[in-house]
Amino acid sequence: MNPTPTVAAGPQPASSIRDLARCLACGASLRGESSCPRCGRAYPCSDGILEAIGPLSGRNRIVAAFYDGPGWKRFRPWEQGFLILQGGARKARMEILRHLLIPGRDPARGLEVGIGDGANLDVLPPGWVVHGVDIARTQLQACLRRHPEMTGRLAWAEAECLPFDDATFDACWSIGGFTYYRDHEAALREMCRVTRPGGPVVVADEIPGLHRAGLGHLLGVPSFDAWWLRRLGLDREFVQMVLAFDVDLEAVRTRVWPESSRHRIWHGLGYCFVNT
Ligand SMILES: C[S@@+](CC[C@H](N)C(=O)[O-])C[C@H]1O[C@@H](n2cnc3c(N)ncnc32)[C@H](O)[C@@H]1O
């Protein structure tokens, strides 16, 4: 099978992200302007990245500091090793992206939430017009270096407050990062809101609590797990966040997306929620 994306008929034109944006404060469409025509809130665009973000709090503050700082660079080789063990990055990513693809449909306008440096763009079909948001500005800059064609298609924004009009995209997805989003319920609702009715919305990540298989937990010495998580490159605050995490993501999924399905990915080490 050679799947192509699911979408409305006809190729979608590439749009500047400001043409698609709406005001976070009052909800008015920006209509391509640099400030909200209704309330005047400014939406600067620098280096081809729309700034639609406020002060970060909770897990989002810790996560942004990690991805913007040296921690992610230290940890990245472990992520790459993990993907190799899953049969390679393409295979591991396609386990998730396949839910966005339906044979015989035209190219889509899609939104990747938590786009990072744009690694999924290498795997998606070439006809797709992808836009992206992320809370870590350095990741968006890395995405532009890797994919210059993303200029004008990226926003510095939180999954929980997406700066777009309703039903703007044909498909929306988040791969990696979801587990530690500040507010999972808000993010799931926002991803559905900005996607046209019937368009696929897909969220995937590693299952939380993998560290509980660590020696420290098995021996009843969790501080040992904190130590080796630090050795993997994670920031101290990030490790504390991982060890304290207690959200039941499955309960959130069934409450917010009652029609969705859950898929086992990455040999059981990951989850994938699909809502259509
Ligand atoms: C593990 S990386 C994955 C990047 C990319 N999706 C991929 O598959 O390679 C997770 C990304 O999600 C971003 N992220 C985490 N929490 C977020 C949130 N609440 N809103 C938007 N982006 C977020 C991080 O900054 C990071 O760039």
Count helical runs: 10
Present as ligands are:
S-adenosylmethionine
Strand line-up of the largest beta sheet: 1-2-5-4-3-6-7-9-8
Order of helices and strands: HEEHHHEEHEEHEHHHHEE
User: What is the β-strand count?
Assistant: 9
Share of helical residues: 25-40%
The percentage of residues in β strands lies in 5-15%
What is the CATH third-level topology name? Rossmann fold
Number of domains: 1
Low-confidence stretches: 1-13
Structural class: alpha/beta
Largest sheet: 9 strands, mixed
Question: Briefly, what CATH class?
Answer: Alpha Beta
Question: How many whole angstroms does the radius of gyration measure?
Answer: 19 Å
CATH architectural category: 3-Layer(aba) Sandwich
Determine the N-to-C terminus distance: 21 Å
The average pLDDT is 90
Shape: globular
Q: What do we call the CATH homologous superfamily?
A: Vaccinia Virus protein VP39
Textual characterization of the structure:
- The protein is of the alpha/beta class and 276 residues long.
- The chain has one domain: Vaccinia Virus protein VP39 (Rossmann fold), CATH 3.40.50.
- It is 33% helix and 15% strand.
- The chain has ten helices and nine strands.
- It has helices at 17-20, 58-68, 70-85, 89-97, 137-146, 184-193, 215-219, 222-231, 236-244, 249-256; strands at residues 45-46, 49-51, 109-113, 129-134, 154-156, 171-175, 201-206, 261-265, 270-275.
- Strands 1-2-5-4-3-6-7-9-8 form a nine-stranded mixed beta sheet, with helices on both faces.
- Helix 6 packs parallel to helix 10 (249-256).
- Bound molecules: S-adenosylmethionine.
